[in-house]
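Running this now, will post back.
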Amino acid sequence: MRKRAIVLFLLSFLGLVDTLYLGIKRGKPVPCSITTGCEEVLNSRFSAIGGFPISWFGFAFYLAVFSASAFAVFSEDDRLFRLTFWPALAGFLVSVGLVGVQAFVLHAYCQYCLGSAILTTLIFIASPKPAFGRPVPDS
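Update: finished.
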C-alpha cells in the first residue's frame, strides 16, 4: 500500500501545481503551446460553477488526495488513504464530462485541463479499490 500511496502523492502534487496555476491565472492570458484553445476553454461558461472557477474544485480534490496519501506515506495508518477511491471516482467522472465539453461543445482543448484529466484518471486507476467487507491485502 505504501508504493501506491507514494504514486498518488506524486500525481496529486502535480495536480496541485496545475490547478493552482490555472486558479492564479484566471482571467489572464494563459500560454498554450501544445493546444490552441486554452483561452476559449478557460473563459467559457463551463469554466466556473456559480462564479467559482472549476480549477479551485480541482485544487481541493488534489489537496484531499495529497493529504491522504501523505498521511499514508509518513505514518503507519492508511485508513484515510483507503477512502481515496470515492473522490477519485468522482474526479474521474467529472474529468470525462469536462473533456466531453471541450470536444463536443467548445471544439477547443486546454492543455492544462487535459493534463489534469490525465492526472485524475491515473489517480483513479492507482487508488485503492474498496474491499466491501473483505480484508484488503497490503501491496
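The CA atoms of residues 27 and 118 lie 24 Å apart. More later if anyone needs it.
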